[in-house]
Inverse folding.
């Protein structure tokens, strides 16, 4: 049923990077139902679904191949920002003449807290907000990007390299679906970032309270699926449609990544439906007992 000729494989026929995705825990373990439906057809060039607690790859298509990440880059921008700035630290908007794409309308000289800028970068995917965060590094944007790449190494994102803090296409700006799943996993550990990426609408306000930037989340699934709790969209000419989505149903936490999709919401929804229909979550003792019985 799950022959190697199928472009989507379970538990990857490729050898994943040498990284321990999950630590020993008593979290429920996803077990594939023997009567699982055929795998979904996807338009995405790459996709992966990862159980966030057990660290199990539930579905994978070109999950370790290199692709452009688009604005999912901003998740790493946010992680690094959380390490070098405090949430209420005031940052000043620099010259934004070189920043294109999606913006929330920041003006040079405007002052906002880091938390406000994170909202502007992650909810509507504002490039001006992400660039402002990076440019406020004491040693400038290049030093901030260097920290992004060091963080990628710490997180064992073997196929990831950043050239900018926004997600603009570049010859060497790259990632993989697996790496993005790990990145999202780290983001969701941070209570502030977790709160921001699931926010549907907000108003980003400067220090004076006079300049307001209404923003709306770019992830359409947040508005239609109550099990969605984040995390980030991305779109560029090279990357196509990119989407990282975390679903939570009871104790089950699953992150789904699609890269180079023609319809990221349809692809993600198809993966979600297949996983809920095809897997059951069991406690570790049940799984060990079942494995032991099967070996008799």
């Amino acid at each position: 049923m799950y022959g190697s000729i199928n472009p989507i494989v379970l538990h990857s026929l490729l050898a994943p990077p040498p990284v321990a995705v999950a630590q020993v825990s008593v979290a429920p373990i996803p077990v594939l139902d023997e009567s699982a439906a055929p795998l979904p057809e996807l338009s995405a060039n790459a996709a992966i679904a990862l159980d966030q607690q057990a660290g199990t790859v539930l579905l994978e298509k070109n999950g370790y191949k290199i692709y452009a990440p688009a604005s999912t880059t901003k998740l790493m921008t946010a992680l690094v920002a959380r390490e070098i700035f405090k949430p209420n630290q005031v940052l000043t908007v620099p010259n934004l003449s070189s920043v294109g794409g999606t913006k929330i309308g920041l003006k040079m000289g405007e002052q906002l807290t880091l938390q406000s800028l994170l909202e502007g970068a992650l909810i509507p995917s504002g490039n001006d907000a992400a660039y402002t965060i990076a440019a406020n590094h004491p040693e400038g944007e290049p030093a901030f990007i260097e920290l992004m790449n060091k963080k990628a190494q710490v997180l064992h994102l073997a196929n990831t390299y950043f050239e900018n803090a926004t997600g603009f296409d570049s010859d060497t700006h790259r990632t993989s679906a697996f790496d993005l799943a790990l990145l999202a996993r780290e983001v969701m550990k941070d209570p502030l970032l977790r709160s921001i990426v699931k926010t549907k609408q907000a108003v980003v306000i400067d220090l004076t309270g006079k300049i307001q930037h209404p923003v709306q989340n770019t992830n359409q699934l947040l508005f239609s699926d109550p099990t969605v709790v984040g995390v980030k969209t991305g779109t560029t000419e090279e990357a196509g449609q990119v989407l990282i989505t975390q679903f939570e149903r009871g104790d089950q936490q699953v992150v789904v990544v699609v890269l180079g999709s023609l319809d990221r919401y349809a692809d993600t929804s198809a993966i979600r439906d297949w996983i809920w229909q095809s897997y059951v979550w069991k406690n570790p003792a049940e799984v060990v007992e079942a494995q032991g019985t099967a070996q008799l």
Summary: Residues 169 and 293 are 52 Å apart (CA to CA). The longest strand covers residues 240-249. Residues 1-24, 291-296 have pLDDT under 50 and may be disordered.
